[in-house]
Design a protein that fits this description.
The chain is built from one helix and 13 strands. It has 191 residues and is mainly beta. The chain has one domain: Galactose-binding lectin (Jelly Rolls), CATH 2.60.120. Strands 2, 3, 6, 8, 9, 10 and 12 form a seven-stranded antiparallel sheet that branches. Strands 1-4-5-13-7-11 form a six-stranded antiparallel sheet.
Length: 191
Amino acid sequence: MPDQPKPPAPSAPAQNNLDLGPEASANHLLGLLRAGSFDGPIKPGETRVLPGVFFSVDPDSKTSGRFHSAVQSLLNIDFAIDGKSRWVALHVKLGPVDLTDRQVVGVVCKSSSPQATTFQLSLRSGREGGFIDHNFRKTTVAYAAPSTHLDAIQIEADSTLPLKAPWRELVLLFRPENSQIVLKDLRIFIV
């Protein structure tokens, strides 16, 4: 099936999750992205890259695109928006991370784009009947030269952030416009 993502190459290292800490699940998924070879279309609705990593695109839009891995890149992403789209996002599942006795949830993102663009990073926490999003304070800017973005949510400073949740995700909310973005690296830390 040419339109299905290719699974990681059998010789890809690190199929076992040896990461420790509350962010271990997400960083393991990101490690699999770094080690594997992935390619596939992006369509309205959900597009799975690998279990636990997926694109979510407004199902009522006429968005198309493609993702693929490349040397020294986590994921290369191309979007084409025909008309309007309410959202275009990449999700990385974190599992039911418990934030009790933790101080910050942080992210490091290295990216580039041939045309300057921005995107927002958000911590999504599941709750009864849906979810709640907590945006990181800074907007990520991608432009021609690779740049590194560092941001953190101070847990005790946000009384609406649930310390416990049945599931969490890191969500990269892209601008719903034609764009090319190279995610060179992405790391999550919780301390």
